Amino acid sequence: MEENIYQNIDLINNNPLEPETKVELTFKQKLKTDRKIQILVGLTFFTILILLLSIVISVFRPPVKKENLGQNLPTPIAVPTIINQANILPTQYQSQFDTIENKIKYNPEIIPPEIDLNLGN
Amino acid sequence: MLSLFFSLALAQENLLGQYKTDYSFQINQYQKSYIEYVDKKEVYTKYRTVSTEQDKITATKNALFARNSMLKSYLLALRVSLDEFKTQNPTTTEKTQIELSRWEDWCSEQNLIIPNLNTQADITTWVDTFKEKYVSIQQVIYVSLSQNQINQKIETLNLIKKLSDDIKNDPKTGTILNDWLSSLPVKSDLVMSSLKATTDLTQAKQLSNRFDNFYPEAKSQLNRTNNYLVNMLSDLRAVAIKLNQ
Question: How far is it, in rounded angstroms, from Cα B75 to Cα A30?
Answer without folding.
Answer: 85
